[in-house]
Amino acid sequence: MQIGSGEFTFEWIEDFAEIPHPEEAARGWAHHGIAMGGNGNLLTFHPARSTVLELTTGGKLVRQMDVPLSEAHGVTICSDGTNECLWFADNGRKRQPDKDYDYIWGPKAGHTVKMSLTGEIEMELVAPELPIYNPGTFSPTQVAVWQKTDGGNDDVWVTDGYGQNHIHRFTAAGDYVSSINGNEGDAGAFNTPHAIWIDTRKNEPELYVADRANGQVQVYSLEGEFKRSFGKEFMITPSAFAPYGDFLVIAELNARLTIVDADDRLVTHLGDNHEVASEPGWPNMLDANDVPTRTDRLRTGVFNSPHGLAADADNIYVSEWLIGGRYIKLAKV
Fold it and tell me: How distant, in Å, are the alpha carbons of 71, 87, 132, 197 from that of 75?
C-alpha cells in the first residue's frame, strides 16, 4: 500500500529484512539502530543476539558478525575518505525474555565502541570522570562524529540518553573535551537526549539533539554553543535522524515519522499512529500476568514505535522498538 502524498509518497514494504535465527528474533525485544553504509547496504542488529547484520536495501542478508555488545542501540558509520568504521552506542543492558523482559545488565556497563568493518575493536569510550557519574549510570544511546571528510576534526559526540542526560565531546584519540546538558540555552535541560546528528546541509555545520522526552530538537554549534530549539508545536517524541536530500526525517517513537525542511519547518508526518502509545503495554501488549508479549496492534501503513532510521536518495528504512521487532522500507513512488 502507499502512504504520504505528493513528493513524499511511498510504498510501504513491511518486514522486508531477512533476519537470521527467526525463532530467537521473534522473542527478542528489538531496541537497536540502523545505518546506511558507503556501499549502499544497511547495518543493523539482531533483536535477540549480539550480532551485527548487513543487509541489502532489498533486505537480503549479506553477512552477520558477532560482537561483544549488549545492544547496538545507536549505529553510526564513519569514513576517513578511504576506509569506513562503525560506532556503536551500547547502553549496557537488554530486556530478556526468560526474565519476563526485565532489563538485565550485560558483562559491561554502558560504553561506546569503535570497530572496523570486520569487527576489530579500535576504541572504547566510557563515562568521563565527572561528578554526575559518582554514582550515576552511563547508558549511551547514539554517537556522532564530526568527520574530517566533512570539514571537521573527527571529534566524537556521545549522548548519554538513558543515563545522566548529558552529551559528551571527545577528541579523535578518545580524550574528553567537554559536555552539554541543555542548560546552555533557553530550551531547558535535556530529558532523554536519545539521538544526535551533525547537519552539513548548510554553510555552517550544526549539532542536532533529539531531546525526546521534551518533545523538541535542540541545535548547537560544533563547539557546544546553544543556537536554537524547534518542534514543540509539531513533535511528540523525536528519537532518530536521517537526512533525506535537502530534508530531514525524524523518527518519533510515539508512532510516526516527521519530515522537516532545511529551516526546521514541518513538511509532513508519515504513518501517524500516535494514539497507540497510550495503549496498555505499548509498544507491546500484556498477558494475564502483566508480562509483555508481542502486540497484535500492528497495522500496515502506520507505525507502532519507530526507533532506528536510515535513508538513501529514494527510500527510508525504519526499525521498530518492540518484541520481535519490525523492519519497514518506505520506497519512494
Answer: 10, 6, 25, 12
pTM higher than the cut 0.85: yes
Q: Counting beta carbons within 10 angstroms of the beta carbon of residue 131, is it exposed (0 to 12), middle (13 to 18) or buried (19 or more)?
A: exposed
How far CA 242 is from CA of 5, 18, 255, 310, in Å, comes to 19, 22, 16, 5
pLDDT number for residue 81: 78
Alpha carbons 285 and 47: distance in angstroms, whole number: 18
Strand order across the 206-211 sheet: 193-199, 206-211, 216-220, 226-230
Output the average pLDDT for the chain: 97
Check: CB of residue 31 under 8 Å from CB of residue 94: yes
**148-177: average pLDDT:** 96
> What average pLDDT does the segment 118-147 reach?
96
Give the whole-angstrom CA distance, residue 326 versus residue 305: 9
What does the alpha-carbon distance between residue 201 and residue 232 come to, in Å, rounded to a whole number?
A: 22
Taking 90 as the threshold, does the pLDDT of residue 294 lie above it? yes
3-state secondary structure labels for all residues of 307-327: EEEEECCCCEEEEECEECCEE
Task: Yes or no: say if 306 and 30 are a contact pair by the CB < 8 Å rule.
Answer: no
* Nearest residue to 160 via CA among 130, 185, 187, 188: 130
- pLDDT value at position 107? 85
CB 195 within 8 A of CB 219: no
pLDDT at 109 over 90: no
What is the reported pLDDT for 299? 97
Grid coordinates in use for 9? 509518497
The Cα 145–Cα 79 span in angstroms is: 10
The residue to which cell 546538558 is assigned: 181
